[in-house]
Specification:
Distance between the termini: 85 Å
Oligomer: single chain
Number of helices: 3
Shape: flat
Number of strands: 4
Largest sheet: 4 strands, antiparallel
CATH topology of one domain: Alpha-Beta Plaits
CATH class of one domain: Alpha Beta
Keywords: Cytoplasm
InterPro entries: DUF2129
CATH architecture of one domain: 2-Layer Sandwich
Structural class: alpha+beta
Protein name: YlbG family protein
Pfam families: DUF2129
Length: 118
Amino acid sequence: MDAIIDKEILTKKSEDKTVRPLEMQGRIALFVYCNSYKGNRQLSHYGDLGYTSRKAHYSLLYVNEEDVSETIKKLKALKFVKRVRPSHLKDLNQNFSEAFAETNEVIKGQLEAALGKL
C-alpha cells in the first residue's frame, strides 16, 4: 500500500513541474600565449580552461560571449600573458552543402570532358 501512495505522490509532483527549454550559452575560445607555464593555473579564474600546452606556452580558454572584451582586457593586464587572440570560428561559414555541390559539378564537368575526348 505504501508503494501505491508513493507513486501517486511522485506523479503529482512531476505534473506540477514545468520544463524550461535548454538555452545554450554562447562561448568563444581565447588563445592565451604566456611567458611561462607557471601562471596557467590563474587562467581558470577567467573562464573554462580547455587545453594547456607546456611546450608551446599557450592555453585555450572558453569564455561567455558577453564577457569577451572585459576578459581580454583583464588577461592582457596579467604579467605572464604575452598576447590574447580570440577564435574566429563563429565568423566562418560552416554550411558545407554548397561547397560539396560546387565540387560535384566541377568533377562531373571534368569527367564529361574526359569521356568526350575518348
